[in-house]
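To the wet lab folks,

You asked to see what we're planning to order before we commit. Fair enough. Below is the target structure as tokens, and below that is the sequence we designed to fit it. If anything looks off to you, flag it before the synthesis order goes out.
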């Protein structure tokens, strides 16, 4: 016998003689029973409709296997596709497709307000799914009846979905045109979320999901501060992740319906949970398209006026280069000394090849007005220094940056006198957000900024545009 075996036998004999139990193999524990729940989620769709035929098939296949399948959206349904944005009932094609695909609930995102309150109310009334948002108060206006949460039951499982929208614009408002949210009041969505601490007990819900449109940093803070939340499904920053925070979980699933998130939850009898998350790339998914939805998408896309060739682009422009094109084109159209454009308002890149109105309305989907202001050089420098958001600009002058200060010089670098008169043309989103910097415009244009970009191409069709390397 080996020394090890002798030693082992001695220990067993000693245990028996001392009255203790001998070494035994533990009986395997009985696996805990659980219910499997699947939540498909999208966020920041921004009007993209081309992947709905695949999405419909994907959801239907999962629903055939499991009667506890939920489908939710974390906000920003609108603004980004002219087929949707310029429909006679603004936004309706997306509402129609989401309803036919079986969406259960959408949280109101900041861009849900882009069409105005009356249009949003009409789309909400047409939808077969719920809209939620707890931190907006519509008073007696069109959005007065938005519920704070909704309780959805499938296969005996109840989930409470509580909605939160971001309030990061100056004054504590969502990032949309201030005129579109007049009369509405907003509160910080994280600060007051504790009011829902007893929601599961009060409603009999098995899970509480915060359906948010505020970004991953705020979502993590929300989850850490409110341990009664089981899951945060977020949007706004277009990220892709499934992250465990303690015993709970937070997810975000990209943007533009290029991807969809699949969160699988094991809900045990004692109320504990396990989470698994998968990001499904719809662009690359090899799956049959639902024929009915494919025909509907094709019918919505049948708008030849959006595909007229109005010019061309020499290169695939980056976002910075596209912003340079944007501001320079508007300066040529307006003849002003300065153009300023918030970078967040340039939503797509100007790609190489033919350019159509569809391309321009995708780059600039918001329908912002265009205005000209008369300033002295001293006043213009104050405007440039005082707008806190990131912006692109175009000017025939030189800007000299000295720390937080900006000085305006001529082409030879000579500083202009503070009393020299200059003009600025700018979108009316910025002038409303930073209203303290602007009085009455000297001129208001009839069309939108996007319309004037289209005019620029039609007037400069003799050659392709090329803003290689520009970063203004």
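Sequence we intend to order:
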């Amino acid at each position: 016998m080996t020394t090890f075996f002798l030693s082992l036998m001695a220990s067993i004999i000693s245990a028996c003689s001392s009255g203790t139990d001998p070494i035994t193999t533990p009986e395997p524990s009985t696996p805990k029973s659980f219910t499997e729940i699947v939540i498909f989620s999208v966020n920041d769709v921004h009007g993209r409709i081309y992947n709905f035929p695949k999405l419909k098939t994907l959801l239907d296949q999962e629903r055939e296997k499991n009667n506890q399948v939920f489908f939710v959206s974390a906000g920003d349904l609108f603004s980004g596709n002219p087929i949707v944005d310029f429909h006679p009932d603004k936004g309706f094609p997306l509402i129609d497709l989401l309803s036919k695909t079986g969406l259960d609930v959408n949280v109101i995102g900041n861009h849900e307000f882009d069409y105005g309150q009356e249009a949003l109310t009409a789309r909400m009334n047409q939808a077969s799914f719920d809209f939620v948002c707890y931190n907006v108060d519509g008073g007696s206006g069109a959005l007065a009846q938005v519920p704070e949460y909704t309780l959805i039951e499938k296969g005996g499982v109840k989930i409470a979905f509580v909605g939160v929208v971001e309030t990061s614009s100056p004054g504590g408002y969502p990032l949309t045109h201030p005129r579109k949210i007049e009369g509405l009041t907003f509160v910080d969505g994280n600060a007051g979320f504790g009011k829902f601490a007893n929601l599961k007990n009060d409603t009999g819900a098995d899970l509480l999901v915060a359906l948010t449109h505020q970004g991953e940093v705020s979502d993590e803070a929300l989850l850490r501060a409110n341990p009664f939340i089981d899951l945060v499904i977020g949007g706004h920053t277009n990220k892709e992740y499934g992250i465990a925070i303690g015993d709970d979980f937070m997810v975000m699933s990209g943007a533009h319906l290029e991807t969809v998130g699949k969160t699988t939850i094991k809900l045990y009898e004692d109320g504990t949970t396990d989470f698994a998350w998968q990001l499904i790339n719809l662009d690359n998914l090899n799956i049959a398209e639902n024929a009915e939805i494919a025909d509907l998408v094709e019918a919505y896309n049948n708008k030849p006026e959006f595909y007229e060739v109005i010019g061309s682009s020499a290169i695939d422009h980056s976002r910075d280069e596209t912003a340079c094109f944007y501001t320079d084109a508007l300066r040529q159209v307006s003849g002003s000394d300065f153009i300023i454009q918030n970078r967040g308002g340039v939503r797509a890149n100007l790609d190489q090849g033919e350019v159509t109105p569809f391309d321009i309305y995708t780059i600039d989907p918001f329908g912002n007005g265009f205005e000209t202001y008369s300033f002295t050089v001293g006043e213009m420098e104050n405007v440039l220094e005082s707008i806190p958001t990131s912006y692109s600009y175009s000017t025939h002058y030189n800007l000299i940056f000295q720390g937080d200060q900006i000085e305006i010089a001529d082409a030879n670098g000579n500083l202009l006198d503070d009393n020299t008169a200059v003009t600025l043309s700018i979108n009316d989103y910025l002038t409303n957000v930073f209203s303290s910097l602007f009085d009455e415009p000297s001129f208001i244009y009839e069309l939108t900024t996007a319309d004037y970009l289209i005019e620029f191409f039609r007037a400069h069709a003799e050659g392709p545009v090329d803003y290689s390397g520009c970063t203004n």
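Structural context that might help your review: The longest helix spans residues 319-334. The chain has two domains: 34-301, 308-459.

Thanks,
Computational group
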